Amino acid sequence: MDYGLKPLGREKLWLWLMLAPTLIGLIFGTVGSLLATLALSLFNWDLINSPQWAGAENYIQLFQNKDYIEAFVNTLKFSALYVPSVVVISLLLAVLLNRKIYGVGFFRTVYFLPTVTSAVATALVWNMIYGKETGILNFLLESLGFAPVCWLCTDNAMLSVVIVNVWGAVGEGMIIFLAGLTAIPRDYYEAASLDGANEFQQFFKVTLPLVTPSIFFQTLISAINAFQAYDYIYMLTRRGQGDSSVPVAVYSIYRNAFHFFRMGDASAQAIQLALLVAVFMGIMFWWERRYVVYE
Amino acid sequence: MKKLMFVLVVASLLLAACGGGAKPAAETGPVEITFTMWGAPEELAVWQAVVDDFHKANPNITVKVDVSDWDSYWTKLNTLTAGGTPPDVFAMDAPLYLDWQSRGALLNVQPYIDANPGFLDGFYPQTLTAYKTPDGYYGLPRDFQTIVLFYNKDMFDAAGVAYPTEDWTYDDLLAAAKKLTLDKDNDGKIDQYGFWSDTWDMELLWSEAIWAYGGDIISADHTKTLIGEGGAREAWAFIDSLYKEGVTPTPTTAGEFGLDLFQAGMAAMTTIGHWAVPGYVQSGIKFDVAPMPKGPAGRATSINSAGFVISKQSKHPDAAFAFIKFALSEAGQKRLAELGFAIPVLKSVAESDAYLKQPGDLNQRVFLDSLAFARMKPVFKGYEEWAGVVGDGLIPVFDGEAELNATLDEVIAAADEVLAKNK
Fold first, then answer.
1. What are the tens digits of pLDDT across the range A188-240?
2. How far is Cα A129 from Cα A139, in angstroms, rounded to an integer?
3. How far is CA A70 from CA A63, A204, A229, A275, in A?
4. Domain B30-146+305-356, CATH
């Protein structure tokens, strides 16, 4: 699969030169920190004294550390709820907004707005929505005759946090899907309607197969975001002493590294999380070969 | 001419080095040291004033001050330390002191104290305990906090309830709180709570209550969490009753307001330290303070002190100690007293008008008199992780989602694991 023009002669030099800033950043920033994390995960380091060799100890401890297991399970639960919701809802939004309706630009902007707004600021707004005594959501529930719900208490916090994260992510997903939808040639739909296919049949028989590259891409991105979810969770569920009612893996990494003087444990947790993402990506690429339709 | 200058400079340096003689580490040329602390922006101005005074007295030493909020402060400090460039002098909170001291991050300042006989004589002895280790001091307290009962006079007057007295017990507090919890507009929602305090940290209420009910927090060798033994369970039952009786908002509800409910005029009483006073005075509420209530085992309050430490990696330990010494002198402590956030560690300053005559016309002596029955906020390794497990672990109980005793058992087991991990 070769795309585009191949660089010739001196162009190659310029190509590398132009790519250099990004590549250097990637090598020293991303790859460098990845290798450093990998190395640190094999040591015990308290940030103050020199690191002590620990071998696989930090990895073995991962399976005995109840707090980390809880955080890890929370991350899995969060991802299981978050990824399908983001993909399905943003696809639906894109389909709904991919037509000639009045004010379509306005709607697209509104749905995209959370993506470009600071998570910290919007989390404060969500705090006002979720509040038990003062929240807007409970005000609505009570005026409809329902009992108020403690949205951010331990029992409901996971669901509440997933809702906020999905809300924050569907705008970006919608843009990805809109791009995928506009790439589908109109004649397919004309042909389908000539054959008597209604809108639902058109969606399942034409749109869905042809938008699979976008679904693939969006699932991958959503999964990576799910494993790294932190900002909304921190803002909405943090307790007084820095713990959370929904501690996720990144939360545990941060606290171990910067609050509990356990850089080695934190690094091992980070590596494990990275491996999990890698495995998931492997599964996704297998799925891509089987199901994704490229024109 | 240039050559001559060079020779002169070299010669003077050599002379200075020889002149040092007995003190090989003596500082000669101008020195710059860094000092970081947590605090509010207004604290930076006061510290800048202390630093300027110090610079006037020691023109050779320049101090660069940096103030961050509590959370960023610790992240920054960790990062700077990990990078091998910690600040020369930094602020320390007593409960976290051993985490830093035991890892060898701090300079032993005992030699400096020995070289300044009588330096610690003017300190309140209770403030020094937290920083003392078997081989001397690795830090010194800069101010201290005792926890007292604050009450809103207007609310007490309006409800016809007598102000808290020295004879109050925790039961009296609950009884008064019930009378002061009001739904003024009868919409089924409480507009004024009788009491409010944070229960995620032991310092504001639960350590005092546990001690007053005859319990304790942690064993002397820091291996066992004692908050479930003896009178401690009764203390927890009392705290739980504050929530169950509805005289205080649940932690999650209180969090929604996002502010201090006493300061906002939504709670008639609170238990807190002197750091809250400037904000309360500014908000215009009419309030005064009383000692913590008594429990079945007597009266107790918590004392905690923030302090100064010097990094072991500091290149200018002499200058760093000179600065600490100045900040802990009467001149430095007076500046701090004017700031109004804390109580000076020097008895002479605390007993003077600089501290006693502050805005707000409070009974400032209550904070000092509380020292008579104050117990040190525990200082041990792994404090932050332990406090997270205990303090945050009990939130579901106070939110009404979990049963007290069963949760307490779980939390204590987890807390003991933390202690074992941080041995």
1. 999 999 999 898 899 999 999 999 999 999 999 999 999 999 989 998 888 87
2. 9
3. 11, 39, 15, 18
4. 3.40.190.10
Among the partner-chain residues A152, A241, A258, the one whose CB lies closest to the CB of B252 is: A152
Name residues whose C-beta falls within 8 Å of residue B125's C-beta, 6 or more positions apart in sequence.
Answer: none
Question: Which CATH class for the B148-302+379-421 domain?
Answer: alpha beta
In the prediction, which pLDDT does B43 show?
Answer: 80
d(CA B250, CA B193): 11
Q: Where in chain B is the domain with CATH 3.40.190.10?
A: 30-146+305-356, 148-302+379-421
Residues of A with CB under 8 A from a CB of B: 46-49, 66, 127-128, 131-135, 150, 152-155, 239-243, 245, 255, 258-261, 263
Top CATH class of A41-291 equals mainly alpha
Question: Which residue shows structure tokens 């009419």?
Answer: B286
- Residue B191's alpha-carbon distances to B131, B187, B353, in angstroms, are 43, 9, 38
Cβ neighbours of residue B32 closer than 8 Å, sequence gap 6 or more: B61, B62, B63, B64
Between CA B255 and CA B262, with CA B257 as vertex, the angle to 5 degrees is: 95
Domains of chain A: which residue ranges? 1-30, 41-291
Contact A260 B396 (CB under 8 A): no
> Are B420 and B223 spatial neighbours (Cβ–Cβ below 8 Å)?
yes
